[in-house]
Amino acid sequence: MKILIAIDGSKASGLAVKSAIGLAKAMGKPPTLVLMHADVPLMRRVAAELGTEGTRRYHQENHDHAMKSARTALKRAKLAFSEKLVVDDAGPAIAKAAKGGKFDLVVMGSHGRTALASALLGSVAAKVLSQSTVPVLIVR
């Protein structure tokens, strides 16, 4: 089984990691786990100011910060994992990665916003649910 765990560094994504660990421990054969962080693209002007290397470093630092607690939890659980950094809008990027990577399940957290806040701000979880062809486990 292949599980994609969407990470943004929030408490909600930490709960998703804990759920994925529980699922993995319950399986007879350890699943393939991939931690994915989708970082928001920089505005063109900012990216131009930073340059190619500066922009790459910026996204890598964001990725490392978001992954810190997830890495620790998975290492503590003695589970192997790999990581994926994508610079794109999170919802569509997660759905695309899940399908393209032939994952069996996406595990992600939800911040639990009200319906009005989600409608106004957009919800990554809602976008993934509406666009994914892969089953999605939302953890709150």
TrEMBL record:
Alphabetized CDD domains for the sequence: USP-like
Q: Where would I find the UspA domain in this sequence?
A: 2-140
InterPro entries xrefs: Rossmann-like_a/b/a_fold, UspA
Which superkingdom, per the lineage?
Answer: Bacteria
Which Pfam family, any one of them, does this sequence belong to? Usp
Record-stated family: Belongs to the universal stress protein A family.
- Please state what the protein is called: UspA domain-containing protein
Q: What is the lineage of its organism?
A: Bacteria, Pseudomonadati, Pseudomonadota, Gammaproteobacteria, Lysobacterales
